[in-house]
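2024-03-11 09:14:02 DEBUG pipeline.ingest accepted 1 chain
2024-03-11 09:14:02 DEBUG pipeline.ingest length=278
2024-03-11 09:14:03 DEBUG pipeline.predict start
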Amino acid sequence: MIRNPDDFFSLSNKVVVITGAAGLLGRKHAEAVAAFGGIPVLLDVSSSGVVELATEIQEKFDVESVGYSVDITKEASVSANAETIIARFGHIDALINNAANNPKMEDDSGKNFSRLENFPLKIWNDDINVALTGSFLCAKYYGYEISKNPNGGSIVNISSDLGLIAPDQRLYEVEGVSYENQNRKPVSYSVVKTGIVGLTRYLATYWPEKNVRCNALCPGGVENGQPEVFIGKVSNKIPMGRMANANEYQGALIWLLSDQASYLNGAIIPIDGGRSVW
């Protein structure tokens, strides 16, 4: 039992690997880990963003942080990076599988790739490779290192409210556009985020004797400069009447990573303002 409230959710000296760390939520995950004394290990396909972010975090939070360029769709890249992290820190305590694609849905021809009938196989494969294959490979290598710890650790997979419910395609429709050209939420997003839920359940039952817990967060949409009309449509689908702020997932994340969630395993947690209950 922790007696000092300041230590209740401490991540002191915990090495936390974060994929897709240069993205909007990835940065927030990293800042939250650092704020609670953890060591954020930042991964992204490009090194520039994560190296710069690691420097910012070190200066702001006075903790160690490091950024690496890793292609999580390539097994050799993940394997080599796991060895690098172990050589530097000696252990890995937690993994946040956050990386996912946000593909462009049009090309120069103006064809609407968001629609199922136009959706390119290459984009489907790329999305599956990053979010699902990448999460599998990260669990295979970083998760295995977590399982070697005497006290285990935590894996947090980032799914979505659309891993629990189907997208309401009416949200993406634009007045005056023909049915055949109306935007749609791409098929790969729902499939990937639902797959993350399945991966979470698998991992939750794979290393329990090693004290490795795996849970999933299912965030709702984050307000981030979308058109006012779209924000209004989405907000009407949410009992709380608004989209999320980017920092509103940090508390739940820290809880899942901390020892205070030591008996939470296999949980699929929606943080969507109540949207998925309607």
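2024-03-11 09:14:41 DEBUG pipeline.report Residues 121-147 form the longest helix (27 residues).
2024-03-11 09:14:41 DEBUG pipeline.predict end
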